[in-house]
Amino acid sequence: MTHRFGDDWKKSLLLPAKDNRVKTSDVTATKGNEFEDYCLKRELLMGIFEMGWEKPSPIQEESIPIALSGRDILARAKNGTGKSGAYLIPLLERIDIKKDHIQAIVIVPTRELALQVSQISIQISKHLGGVKVMATTGGTNLRDDIMRLDEEVHVVIATPGRILDLIKKGIAKVNKVQMMVMDEADKLLSRDFVVIIEDIIGFLSKNRQILLYSATFPISVQKFMAKHLQKPYEINLMEELTLKERQKVHCLNTLFSRLQINQSIIFCNSTQRVELLAKKITQLGCSCFYIHAKMMQEYRNRVFHDFRNGLCRNLVSTDLFTRGIDIQAVNVVINFDFPKNAETYLHRIGRSGRFGHLGLAINLITAEDRFNLKTIEDQLMTDIKPIPGSIDKSLYVAEFHSVNPDCEAEASHPGGGSEAH
């Protein structure tokens, strides 16, 4: 198709219906850039606008110009913030359709994501006049892929095992690939995939560009970055806590100053919040470790061992830490995020006051948690009371323990509440 461009080229675009839903700040907190600012081919801009993308989201603003410059990127952003566009736009801009070889590969952990990303690539490249995009995933017919790769292919979107298989068979020739993207890199660098990813990189040329996108940065991502990325440009759009979370941090700070904490475990509902909260606690000047399921086992073991040996006073954790963990020195448990069910609540608060020692459990409650709070109170037939102005130290501090057996029995079932509105 030949396009004749004048100043009114946008008028001929087939735009989708405008999306008037309320958007979160992950998408709206931009610098005010336009897609035209990046000197992209007009045919690519047409595809972008016809996708309904009006302006670049924050992750796109940060990624696109850097990726176009050829520099490696390590980007941290949530799903649903325009992440695919952040790497597909520069990837497609740099494809030379006159060259008949694979120029870019995108590796994703699941078949569903591979199909979704290839669909977006096909849509935004439809005016580029012949960019050939191919998706290949495990569980599909290998013969179809072989026939497809016999023809012209510029971009391959694949799951790790399948692309490595095609490379090793000599079917997918990747020695001229200029860009490799890893989407959901934390999953791709988990124990299941990391060896495969290392193998794939071994077949690429030394001057390839690598773009890494991940919602979390476990130690596996950091190790990989140090080994394979050259002076990567780091983008982190997940630094900020919400207003409610900041109020909770303020609450935590007050608790730290008023409670006599021997050791505490602070529970969050997501791995991302664990890392962020641990950073904030450290900034408050309190010693803090963190642990969650996306960290490598050896690293988790080391954190656990050091915490048990008293090297640190506070540990921020997900529910990974709630079963069978006995650290007698823990006398305070804080639910930074209130748990979703009674079983989790019991497992969490059972981390303090082990083996007849006393302990305190404090919950930071927001308005959204009230339904869960009521449900858990009903199921456990208990009353989680608002936090008093001062807490009797005999309830949770060893040297203040009362010799009164009735008092001891009552205190060993900890429960507390703190309202953070």
Automatic annotation (TrEMBL):
<keyword id="KW-0347">Helicase</keyword>
<feature type="domain" description="DEAD-box RNA helicase Q">
    <location>
        <begin position="33"/>
        <end position="61"/>
    </location>
</feature>
<dbReference type="Pfam" id="PF00270">
    <property type="entry name" value="DEAD"/>
</dbReference>
<feature type="domain" description="Helicase C-terminal">
    <location>
        <begin position="251"/>
        <end position="395"/>
    </location>
</feature>
<keyword id="KW-0378">Hydrolase</keyword>
<protein>
    <recommendedName>
        <fullName>RNA helicase</fullName>
        <ecNumber>3.6.4.13</ecNumber>
    </recommendedName>
</protein>
<dbReference type="InterPro" id="IPR011545">
    <property type="entry name" value="DEAD/DEAH_box_helicase_dom"/>
</dbReference>
<keyword id="KW-0547">Nucleotide-binding</keyword>
<dbReference type="GO" id="GO:0005524">
    <property type="term" value="F:ATP binding"/>
</dbReference>
<dbReference type="Pfam" id="PF00271">
    <property type="entry name" value="Helicase_C"/>
</dbReference>
<dbReference type="InterPro" id="IPR001650">
    <property type="entry name" value="Helicase_C-like"/>
</dbReference>
<comment type="similarity">
    <text>Belongs to the DEAD box helicase family. DDX6/DHH1 subfamily.</text>
</comment>
<dbReference type="InterPro" id="IPR014001">
    <property type="entry name" value="Helicase_ATP-bd"/>
</dbReference>
<dbReference type="GO" id="GO:0000932">
    <property type="term" value="C:P-body"/>
</dbReference>
<dbReference type="GO" id="GO:0003723">
    <property type="term" value="F:RNA binding"/>
</dbReference>
<dbReference type="InterPro" id="IPR000629">
    <property type="entry name" value="RNA-helicase_DEAD-box_CS"/>
</dbReference>
<dbReference type="GO" id="GO:0003724">
    <property type="term" value="F:RNA helicase activity"/>
</dbReference>
<feature type="short sequence motif" description="Q motif">
    <location>
        <begin position="33"/>
        <end position="61"/>
    </location>
</feature>
<dbReference type="InterPro" id="IPR027417">
    <property type="entry name" value="P-loop_NTPase"/>
</dbReference>
<dbReference type="InterPro" id="IPR014014">
    <property type="entry name" value="RNA_helicase_DEAD_Q_motif"/>
</dbReference>
<feature type="domain" description="Helicase ATP-binding">
    <location>
        <begin position="64"/>
        <end position="235"/>
    </location>
</feature>
<keyword id="KW-0067">ATP-binding</keyword>
<dbReference type="GO" id="GO:0016787">
    <property type="term" value="F:hydrolase activity"/>
</dbReference>
